[in-house]
Amino acid sequence: MKLYINGNVNHYYVQMLCMIFFPGTKFSENEEEGENTPVLYLNFNETVDGVEAIAKVKLAEKSAECVRHYDKRDDISVDRLKKLAVGDAVINACGELLSYRPSWGMLVGVRPSKVATELLMSGMSKTKVKKILVSDYFVIPKKAALATEVALNEAKIVGTPDKKDCSVYISIPFCPTRCAYCSFVSYTSKKLLSTIPQYIERLTGEIEGIFSFIRKRGLNLKTVYIGGGTPTILDESLLCILLDAVAKNTDVQSLEEYTLECGRPDTINEEKLKIAKEHGVNRISVNPQILNDDVLRKIGRAHNSEEFLRAYDIARNSGIPIINTDVIAGLPGDKFQTFSASFDKVLSLRPENITVHTFSVKNACDALRNDSNIYSPRGGDVGKSVDYSQIKAQHEGYFPYYMYRQKNTVGNYENVGLCLEGCEGLYNIYMMEEVHSIFAAGAGAVSKFVDYAPSNGKKRVIERVFNYKYPYEYLAADKSEENLRAAEKFYDEHM
Length: 495
Fold this sequence. Notes:
This protein is α/β, with parallel strands linked by helices and 495 residues long. Helix content is 40%, strand content 21%. It folds into three domains: 100 residues, Double Stranded RNA Binding Domain; 48 residues; 282 residues, Transcription Regulator spoIIAA, CATH 3.30.750.200. A nine-stranded mixed sheet has the order 11-12-10-9-8-7-6-5-13, with helices on both faces. Helix 1 runs parallel beside helix 2, helix 3 packs across helix 4 and helix 7 packs parallel to helix 17.
């Protein structure tokens, strides 16, 4: 897609608005305009009285234009006014061109409930927040209600964060097979899987260093999350070594939450979950994705529906109190009938936590290489499937507590965490809402140091520290001391 932007406007924000209507599009200044290349012309002006945005979009022989002028207001910053004007103009021009109204209006980015959170924190009522999301941001009413409810539920869980709170994330970037929709740093070849023992040896050393830093600084460790990849790809002896490293360095019984992603049903057995339970793990994920064997084969999962039910039964009998299940709406080949039947079956199992994802087309995923037409702005059955999951779950006693969105999701829909009372996935909220520091260990892991409530009254300060992305890099050079020095520097300056 070609963008011609005139004025002081954040180009990335405009790109994200365009991707709502043209998912998967690339932006290049050097790209030549073809007959089917969408083109956006955007002019932005700031005056004494307000701001004005003029957007014109064209595709082949069709074009549409929208002009929006916003007067300055005492209750809105100039930056927010600018985003409203630009978003209004672009969303309405593109919407007229394609005869499409996106459910989330002009809200872009990972956190669609962020605006609702900010408005609620300003003292606005729940009813007023929903009205503003609909009128100012063009969010459809049911999504405005969802965003507001999630924001309220997250606020209850977050409470008043302490500057010394933190969590730990541990990365196991290996999987038995690669899913067609996956773009995570996860490795499946025999050669790389053979490095797992060496990887665990390096990882446990990094874990010890991180926990030592946490103790030395007197930080409050709230949650530990072991993710991937598929952590239960580890055999029993290696899983025991990993969990021993955590248990030896902190009191796991004092944690609010200790999660082990089991994920793939084909990696789960009674002995592994017995080890997890004995080491204090109190939350696990067992993920069907969908309970349709034809779709599971198409997306490269190595299990079928019966194997998921077997793994879930092992998980339920393990004594680990909280089980999460992930399901995905909009997978290639799936329809509303098969999704709703799958969701009904998952609900009947009564997991404490259900995360409903919308299929997101990643640039590096195999599904995109096999089907370049996989992108779908309207989403087909996905909207109906997402709505069904939320309505049916709430009817069965679940409530939405957590939400995020990814780029290029089919239909531009959201991912929502649903849970029974008292079973919220705390790490997910702490990480997404950036309320305290996350110390991350392992390949592909990103530590996020957060000064949530700076003493000088300024905005929160966030610094990200990236570990080596790939396991072979992680094994070739040890970056743990460098990462800890970055943590030391941040805490010296901000804490």
